Amino acid sequence: MQYDKLPYVGDICSTGFELRTASADAISAVEVAAGYGDSGKASAATLRDFFIACANACHAVTGATKTVKVA
């Protein structure tokens, strides 16, 4: 995945560029791994769950009671 496909967060996070590039690198790694079979798909699911947990933590700060779910 290309980092510029992810939203810019530099205005709220001083390490926004590093966050985008590390996230894109992780996504790229599981995209490649998923091509090798079920263990790669499991890695993708684990990364997805990590990002959902991140989203839920940020969402909780807003005072919302609902959680982010997979579409």
Task: Give a topology summary.
Layout: H1 16-34, H2 38-61
Helix pairs in contact: 1-2
What does this structure look like?
- By secondary structure, the chain is mainly α.
- The chain has one domain.
- It is 61% helix and 0% strand.
- It is built from two helices and no strands.
- Helix 1 runs antiparallel to helix 2.
- The longest helix has 24 residues.
- The radius of gyration is 14 Å and the shape is flat.
- It starts with 15 loop residues before the first helix and ends in a 10-residue tail after the last helix.
- The relative contact order is 0.10.
Please tag this protein with its features:
71 residues, mainly alpha
Provide a brief overview of the structure.
With 71 residues, this protein is an all-alpha fold. 61% of the residues lie in helices and 0% in strands. Helix 1 (16-34) packs antiparallel against helix 2 (38-61).
Total count of strands: 0
Order of helices and strands: HH
State the shape: flat
Q: What class do helices, strands and sheet pairing give?
A: mainly alpha
* Helix amount: 55-70%
Work out the oligomeric state of the chains in this entry.
Answer: single chain
Taking the alpha carbons of the first and last residues, their distance comes to: 20 Å
